[in-house]
User: What shape does this take?
Amino acid sequence: MNDTVLMETRGQVAVLTLNRPDRANTLNGELMAALQEKAGEAARDKEVRVLIVTGAGRHFCGGADLRSPRSAVSGPPPGAPNAGIALDWVPKPVIAAINGAAMGGGCEIALSCDFRIIAAEAKIGLTEIRFGALPAGGGTARAPRLIGLAAAKRMIMIGEPLDAAEALRVGLVDEVAETGQLMDRAFALAEVLASRAPYAMRTAKQLLNQSLEVDLGTALAMERALISRMGSPEEMQQARDEAAARSSTYANIFSKPDAKVG
Assistant: This one.
């Protein structure tokens, strides 16, 4: 049984834990295949609305396991062609809960997530150039899109890791969690995301991820096309009912026969 990635479902949230703590959760073929397999299971589970990815032990992921021979990685699940270590193909929100060192490939996993929360004592970086390599899991493509070209050049071409405060300053992470509060903060965010309509969430993620790949006119056309058919009448009614249950304001709005969403 492949237990290099563990999955636990808590309500509407699936927690994927990289599980090679004795090797700083470094990446080998087995772990990479297991990550895609578990992400695929969570993506297909209709009860799961949000994924959290974290690491067992002291580290999030120390990057590639340089002491292990390269091994073939089994093919990713449908909808995740050539995903490798990336998780941006998952049609649900993915949160990286960075509990310790996230270096090289570990940083690239985090970059492919939608949100990144880092423990105050953790560090993150694309450090491959220090031993004559370069990020090969999407780092050179995703980092400049997230933090800008200048900051990405500094991170990749110098190769020094960033502490939590600096990672937050440059926009590499969204939040710094105080010691012992990382998973609490990740679940707090997950609960908010899980309360949103799944059809709207997956459409938003698709549009936002594609927005930087196309010109403005194409992006606007995609927006109109996808939003106009993103949910069935039943799904949209369920989203309004859930909103009304959470808020008296929405309850008053949606109780009116001519209520419209705007």
Notes: The beta strands are 5-10, 13-18, 50-55, 94-98, 102-103, 115-119, 123-125, 162-163, 175-177. Residues 71-81 have pLDDT under 50 and may be disordered. The first strand starts at residue 5 and ends at 10. The chain is about 40% helix and 15% strand.
